[in-house]
Amino acid sequence: MSEPVTQAAAGAKEAGFNVSDLIMHHITDSRSIEIPFTSREIHLPPIHIAGVDLSITKHVVMLWIAGGVLFALATIAARGVSDPVPTGWRNAFELLIKYIRDEIVRKAIGHDADRYVGYLLTCFFFIWTCNLLGLIPGMSTPTSNVGVTAMLAIVAFVVIQVAGMIKFGVLHHLKNIVPGGLPIWLYPIMIPVEILSLFTKPFALCIRLFANMIAGHVVIIGLISLIFILQSGWAATVSVPFTLFIFVLELLVCFIQAFIFTTLVATFIGMSVHPAH
Length: 277
Fold this sequence. Notes:
The chain has 9 helices and 4 strands, in the order H-H-E-E-E-E-H-H-H-H-H-H-H. It is 72% helix and 4% strand. The strands form 2 sheets. Strands 1-2 form a two-stranded antiparallel ribbon. A two-stranded antiparallel sheet has the order 3-4. Helix 4 crosses helix 5 and helix 6 runs parallel beside helix 9.
């Protein structure tokens, strides 16, 4: 950072504005929810059961909101299901569902695909809704919480392994983890490598979604903060257009990250039920 910008940042900090505090306040979880365009907050009550902290946090509330919004939109879309010609919101909903089912799930998994369509569609729409919540004033992105993405990855890991066990049985599925037909001397190397790969897949799902969703918010807040750091109206002529550009890009990233998560999980399920591929 150049000397003038460093001095301006120090001046802004002395004036009570701290960029790092603002970024951390926005991206981290908390026990209060800010009311947009006011200085008021809704404080969430602490809950402790048997010495375990089970308090409701802002990201938990956001998960509930995402579930509620998704349920309401799906209910509205399902109202005209008896009509053979879909219109309006139902038309867009069905278009996405059919694309994910036909172009992603069925192509990745094959004959057993329809069994997992419901889970994968839930993954896509729930993650997409969670991602978009952070772009609404006063809301937060629960998928920027590594705990949330870790739980999504754990559920995906269980589904992937159960898919293989349903297809081949427990023992045969475990046997399929290592490719057959290898030279005997290669098995001591391949067995630990393949077992490790079982856990690296969900780990990659977790970190990829978490990192991508948190990065966009940090960039947007950083660009807006330049106005306060430099304490100049001229900074807004640069930071505001760039912020709008990143905001529009974030709309695309929200969709892409939900799409990638769903596609990767469908691919991993396909690898589990078709180990020869």
